[in-house]
Amino acid sequence: MPNPRPADANDTSRENWALVVLLVLVSLALVSILLPFYAAIMWGLILSLLFTPFHRWLLPRVGHRPTLAALCTLGIVLLIVILPLTLVMLLLAQEAAWLYQGLQSGDINPALYFHRAFNRLPDWVGAILDRFGLVNFATLQRRLTAALAQGSQFAATQVFTIGQNTFEFVVSLSIALYLAFFLIRDGDSTVRAIGRMIPLAPVHRQKLWHKFATVVRATVKGNLLVALIQGALGGLAFWALGVSGALLWAVLMAAFSLLPAVGAALVWGPVALYFLVTGALWHGLALTAYGVLVIGLVDNLLRPILVGKDTRMPDYVVMITTVGGMAIFGINGFILGPLIAAMFLSAWQIFGETR
């Protein structure tokens, strides 16, 4: 068979480059369209990864009807994930509204709490505050009042935008559940179709997908479980010590606990310090011991087991990428940070094996 003529080879090369340019352009266009809903798409994918094993278990029990099994799986998602989250958010909104009204009416006076703590400070602490111009309580109160005024203004602004935020939340939730349904029902065929388009050896494609799914499952289940346990333990301690707004503090501790090592301590630490400074010595000591030995132990024991063990990444890599991911992507960064790190390590490992 004669070799292709140079003109034919040039035409083929130009067609290949044109196809590459076209793929890049349409891919960028699609990313720009989907970017506003990247969080909803990500959580739809996460829900499908977490509940696909349940769908596979359920499938033979409903007569191998994929649509019915996917609908039942989605019902379980609504029952054990969406409904409890909605109830907690409603209770949190109620408690935040109570706190806001207390601040406006004067029933809750943070300046009074600071005044009590300020009067009980040792002289050497007062000398340090004097260097920063805070030794005069009137100055401190003015600064605190200004900060509270800004916070109240921000809260009032959020009241006017809550309708828009609710609509955006409902739209994002609908997209996530809609996408999760199809990924749960048709996930295997979708993964195979996408895999055929990736120009890698089958064993490498399988390795990357396995790493992707493992990291997502471990990060979500591990971090969220640790956050829920630490938030519940912290809220229980605050309730037992008579701290107002225990549910609000519990949610804050759960959110901060997504930051490894020091997360929940950013909430219970200042409260324990306030108890110690204001003379509630036993309350402060009890909260400190409870925070270190119980709340901190949960983070130190469970997080390496649930996250680091499955992802097969060192604890310091998980911690740094989690903090960096949250700095860039917000709350979703606790998943995206370790996931990007895992894909980075896997890609370089594959490159080394092929070379």
Structure description:
It is a single chain. The protein starts with 5 loop residues before the first helix and ends with a helix. The protein contains twelve helices and no strands. With 355 residues, the protein is an all-alpha fold. Helix content is 85%, strand content 0%.
Can you count the beta strands? 0
Rg, rounded, reads 27 Å
- Uncertain runs are none
How much of the sequence lies in strands comes to: under 5%
Principal-axes geometry comes out as: elongated
In total, how many domains does the architecture comprise? 2
| Largest beta-sheet details | none
The string of secondary-structure elements, in order, is HHHHHHHHHHHH
Task: Spell out the blueprint of helices and strands.
Elements: H1 6-34, H2 38-58, H3 66-105, H4 110-119, H5 123-131, H6 137-197, H7 202-240, H8 246-256, H9 265-277, H10 281-311, H11 315-329, H12 333-354
Helix pairs in contact: 2-3, 2-6, 3-6, 4-6, 7-8, 7-10, 7-12, 8-9, 9-10, 11-12
How would you sum up this structure in a few lines?
The chain is mostly helical and about 350 residues long. The protein has helices at about 5-35, 40-60, 65-105, 110-120, 125-130, 135-195, 200-240, 245-255, 265-275, 280-310, 315-330, 335-355.
Essential attributes:
355 residues, 2 domains, 0% strand, mainly alpha, 85% helix
